[in-house]
Write a structure and sequence with these properties.
The protein is α+β, with helices and mostly antiparallel strands and 527 residues long. It folds into three domains: 69 residues, Uridine Diphospho-n-acetylenolpyruvylglucosamine Reductase, domain 2 (2-Layer Sandwich), CATH 3.30.43; 172 residues, Uridine Diphospho-n-acetylenolpyruvylglucosamine Reductase, domain 3 (2-Layer Sandwich); 135 residues, Alpha-Beta Plaits (2-Layer Sandwich), CATH 3.30.70. 35% of the residues lie in helices and 20% in strands. Strands 14, 15, 16, 17, 18, 19, 20 and 21 form an eight-stranded antiparallel β-sheet that branches. Helix 11 runs antiparallel to helix 12. The two termini are 33 Å apart. The relative contact order is 0.13. Bound molecules: flavin-adenine dinucleotide. The site of flavin-adenine dinucleotide has 38 residues, from strand 3, helix 4, strand 12 and helix 10.
């Protein structure tokens, strides 16, 4: 093993001990591989000693999944190459290394500009056809566009547009991964299926992993909680959303879709949450052209007003009059202006019927208008994270206290009422925003001291328990990581956690990968 691949952690590496959850971990060594082969080499070496390994993409995760619990940090940020492309039945597929950043990939796809020196002949030929084709896009759009593609696949990330296009899972066609012992697997969609709940996975080295899938039923709503499992499932789906616990993803093939002819963003404002919920219900009845429905509560809008007034970095935010109580952003993906204007009229009617004032509506029709709205949407979680960081200066144990809970349609209003009632009772500072079209709102508590932090965490645990009773998901898009591991047990129960731990052990018998993610480390060892 070359000295350069695994090295001791030094104080300058401190940043690699944390992610955007603000939790801080510890580790003894770190590596920055650049190729699949280097990852194999590193894992073969670490397997000898059973050293715990935490995989890192961009560390934008909010559940502390990339925060190391001892051992080695495998940071994939230098695996940032686009490896090639192919086309089949008129569709285009691009293969990337896991450290490729979403934002950069999207720019390359839009500009049709790639560094192709190492591409094979098929890719070079496909590129010519790609340049002749209409505009294409990779649809998953987490608000944090500096996420890596590997991290997005590991968390099954989603974003505003997942309302229409679904989460990352549906846009992944093939994966290559390295197991804890350095062996490798390659999976293409549609090739290997479970028989009932039994799955046999061949490694590239000729051995077989015999997996017994857990027996739980996954919630019927947006979900990124624990392993994705069901009878007769496609094997590739097990690795998607596995939170860095089963394999290190080293090559990822994504699929592209056509860019819609016209994209408009409509932001309607409402006096209170109940009108916003009523508007959403009406808008969800529209069968075509609605790509996203996103919510911002009154506290989130207040945070933006304050940022605009006090922080020059946020001066580009649009002016928000005080009477604009809370907001719902609806994105339209249309085949032309006729459809867009018809939808705009319907939305205006929905807004009035729900109790909003259609005159207080922003309509973004150009790229630059939509950029402002994207800035607006990103500024909310970013500002909340800044506030958590400020509290952390006085109370270092403070981490982000944010919900990522989703429920089936019939429970959504009950959940929103529960949030309201319990937040009012506790009197904690908070802000809520997110994917209202998917019954998935991020309610964040903003603790100013340790008492508020403890009460906020207790509130979140109570909501997770209620959501589990409603048949919902304790994590709908950020992944369970370390912060939400206790909720996963509440959601699925001890027996099913034991089944998940047994599944993990068939891939990773020494419990090296992603220690502390999904299960508490002690539970993993005991099971
Ligand atoms: C302001 C803000 C807004 C956000 N908005 C959204 C949103 O709208 N939707 C959403 O889904 N998320 C959102 N997130 C969370 C985060 O961006 C996503 O979870 C993202 O997918 C994490 O990617 P990453 O590269 O940063 O992964 P990391 O944080 O580095 O890692 C996350 C997990 O993936 C694993 N992992 C990373 N790479 C690999 C790999 N190659 N192989 C195996 N495991 C791997 C890690 O071990 C860890 O378990 C937001 C975060 C912030 C800070």
């Amino acid at each position: 093993m070359e000295q350069t691949l695994i090295r001791k952690l030094v104080s300058a590496d401190e940043e690699y001990l944390r992610d955007e959850s603000k939790k801080v971990g510890n580790a003894e060594s770190i590596s920055f591989p650049e190729t699949h082969e280097q990852v194999c080499e590193i894992m073969t070496e670490l397997y000898k000693t059973g050293t715990p390994v935490t995989v890192q993409g961009s560390r934008t995760g909010l559940a502390a999944a990339a925060v190391p619990f001892g051992g080695h940090i495998l940071n994939l940020s230098r695996m940032d190459k686009v490896l090639g492309m192919r086309s089949e039945d008129g569709r285009f597929y691009i293969t990337v290394q896991p450290g490729v950043i979403l934002q950069k990939l999207n720019k390359s796809i839009a500009a049709r500009s790639f560094s192709m020196d190492a591409w094979d002949e098929e890719s070079q030929e496909t590129y010519k056809a790609f340049c002749r084709a209409g505009s294409l896009m990779f649809t998953p759009d987490p608000t944090e566009s500096t996420a890596s593609i590997g991290g997005m696949v590991a968390c099954n990330a989603s974003g505003a547009r997942s309302y229409h296009y679904g989460a990352t899972r549906g846009h992944i066609e093939a994966l290559r991964g390295v197991l804890a012992n350095g062996e490798t697997i390659s999976l293409s969609r549609g090739q290997i299926f479970a028989k009932g709940l039994e799955l046999s996975l061949p490694t590239e080295q000729g051995s077989t992993i015999n997996v017994k899938l857990p027996t739980y039923k996954m919630p019927e709503c947006k979900n990124a909680s624990g392993y994705y499992c069901h009878e007769d499932m496609d094997a590739i789906d097990l690795l998607i959303g596995s939170d860095g616990t089963l394999a290190i993803l080293t090559e990822i093939e994504i699929s592209l879709l056509p860019v819609p002819a016209l994209t408009w963003g409509i932001t309607c404002f409402f006096p209170t949450q109940s009108e916003a919920v009523a508007y959403t219900k009406l808008t969800k009845n529209i069968s075509q052209g609605i790509a996203a429905i996103e919510y911002f509560d009154d506290c989130a809008l207040d945070i933006l007003r304050k940022q605009k007034a006090e922080n020059t970095a946020f001066s580009g935010l649009p002016f928000l009059p005080k009477e604009y109580g809370c907001a719902v952003y609806t994105e339209l993906h249309c085949d032309g202006e006729e459809q867009a204007y018809a939808l705009l009229e319907t939305l205006s009617g929905n807004c009035a019927q729900a109790g909003g004032n259609p005159d207080m509506t922003w309509v973004a029709t150009s790229d630059s208008d939509r950029d402002v709205l994207h800035f607006f949407r990103h500024a909310v979680p970013e500002s909340v994270n800044m506030q958590v960081e400020r509290s952390k200066r006085n109370y270092p144990e403070i981490t982000k206290v944010g919900g990522d809970l989703a429920v089936p349609d019939d429970s959504f209003e009950t959940l929103m009422n529960l949030y309201d009632a319990t937040l009012e009772k506790e009197g904690l500072q908070h802000a809520a925003w997110g994917h209202i079209g998917d019954n998935h709102i991020h309610v964040n508590i903003l603790p100013r001291d340790m008492d508020e932090y403890s009460r906020g965490k207790a509130l979140l645990a109570g909501w997770a328990a209620e959501v589990s009773r409603m048949g919902g998901a304790v994590s709908a898009e950020h992944g369970v990581g370390k912060l939400k591991a206790p909720f996963l047990e509440v959601m699925y129960g001890e027996d099913h956690i034991r089944e998940m731990a047994a599944l993990k052990a068939t891939f990773d018998p020494k419990c090296m990968l992603g220690r502390g993610n999904l299960f508490a480390p002690q539970q993993e060892v005991e099971r």
